[in-house]
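User: Sequence recovery, please. Input:
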């Protein structure tokens, strides 16, 4: 694990995941290791957040925040000498929303993802997105690595 003063910030994140501009939602990595990552975000409060619809940011968008944390986790692991291909969100299961929206939350978001299992092709994560001790959303997501190497289905 890196020292706290060396943890990736927004600029590092934007340089290592495909999401750019306003779609790069995470501000910084707070802690990470081989199985877990926790990031913070303030973009849920921004009126310019591209995920807003009719001026609101619905809680279902927590899945995108979690997916970006998973992408950052993969980039960090790749930097730690573990080769990982590009990841694609393949499925989301067991999602439970504990709020209707996120844009009205005054505190920073805490976005956590924990690797439950995986191999060189597919990784299963559990995730939570919350603020100030309140869980806003939770679930599981499967990430397919290097999908281009999978044979096309007829």
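Assistant: Recovered sequence (154 residues):
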């Amino acid at each position: 694990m890196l020292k706290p003063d060396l943890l990736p910030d927004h600029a590092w994140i934007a340089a290592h995941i495909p999401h750019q501009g306003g779609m790069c939602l995470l501000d910084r990595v707070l802690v990470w290791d081989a199985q877990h990552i926790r990031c913070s975000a303030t973009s849920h409060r921004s009126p310019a957040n591209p995920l807003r619809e009719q001026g609101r940011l619905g809680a279902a968008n927590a899945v995108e925040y979690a997916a970006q944390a998973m992408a950052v986790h993969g980039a960090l692991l790749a930097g730690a000498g573990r080769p990982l291909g590009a990841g694609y969100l393949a499925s989301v299961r067991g999602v439970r929303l504990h709020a209707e929206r996120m844009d009205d939350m005054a505190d920073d978001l805490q976005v956590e993802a924990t690797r439950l299992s995986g191999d060189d092709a597919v990784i299963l994560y559990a995730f939570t997105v919350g603020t100030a001790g309140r869980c806003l959303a939770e679930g599981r997501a499967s990430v397919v690595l290097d999908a281009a190497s999978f044979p096309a289905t007829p």
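The chain has a mean pLDDT of 88.
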